[in-house]
What we know:
The chain has helices at about 35-40, 45-70, 90-105, 115-120, 165-175, 180-190, 215-230, 235-260, 275-285, 305-320; strands spanning about 1-5, 10-20, 25-35, 80-85, 110-115, 130-135, 140-150, 150-160, 265-270, 295. The protein is of the alpha/beta class. The chain has 2 domains: about 1-120 and about 300-320, ATPase, nucleotide binding domain (Nucleotidyltransferase, domain 5); about 130-295, Nucleotidyltransferase, domain 5, CATH 3.30.420.40. Strand 7 and strand 8 form a beta hairpin. The longest helix is centred in the C-terminal third of the chain and has 26 residues, at about 235-260.
Amino acid sequence: MKILAIESSCDETAVAILEVQNEELNLLSNVVFSQIDIHKKYGGVVPEIASRHHIEKITYVLEEALTNAGVGHQDIDLIACTATPGLVGSLMVGVNAAKTISLVFDKPLVMVNHIHGHIYANRLVSEFLFPALALVVSGGHTELILMKDHFEFEKLGETLDDAVGEAYDKVARVVEVGYPGGPIIDKMAKLGKPVYALPHIHLSKDSYDFSFSGLKSAVINLNHKLTQNGETVDKNDLAASFQEAVIDVLCEKTLRAAQEFKARHIIVAGGVAANSALRETLTEKVKELNGVKLSFPPFKYCTDNAAMIAVAGYYQAKKEKLMVNS
């Protein structure tokens, strides 16, 4: 079977075609139009501008994906699209396009949760072992999710305020290094040392929730204090200190949850899954868990894309019994 997937939850207009045969996944095409350069001058995504660009690009991206895959609408067996969460105006563009294709060509349609998509980006490169623990780290979400089987999700913890990606963007804005903040701060951290005392916010010892607002505020206050005192702020050292505090908390909670719930597989998902310090630190620490598998998606599947929505759509459709034989 062939699945056409659409992703438009934020500032990427994306369409992918996935072929599935005997549980083997073959990605036929994956086209992404990114608006990062458009939103850079604003220091973040402007919802109205994002929506307008989705409207302008969706038809072109769709046609390019079909052409690259060498298929037509009539060859598609299932439509999948991101329905939530995301920017309402942006989501509407993708949902309306998916509904139109579904109605015109009489194809089943499945509405996919964006977070599920990020988790299933890992399935493009690896089978899942259950129970699995997913660490979701992106611009808008930070969550720990337990999976006992495909499309069985139990949220163990989430951010109580800022998501980790938001915190990276805000710290980048404070030190005036540009947008998006995640990859910039990661590169700066490699050039600095964690010499500034910043809080590592673990909350209570039993909690799997996260909080990054206090850490963000500590960076702002430290930067302001040093500047007011006429002291030079070493931006690379500040980035290293911030990143160390973030990675420490993410890894500690992930490993503790993996041990408590006897996870066989730790899955890291979302844009911050591309962070080099997170990859290196978690890879080393997971070695202590005796045989637990660790997966990171390839860099091209960390940020928003439709390939991950296609995979999640496939497993969701199986769960909802919408499938034709695959």
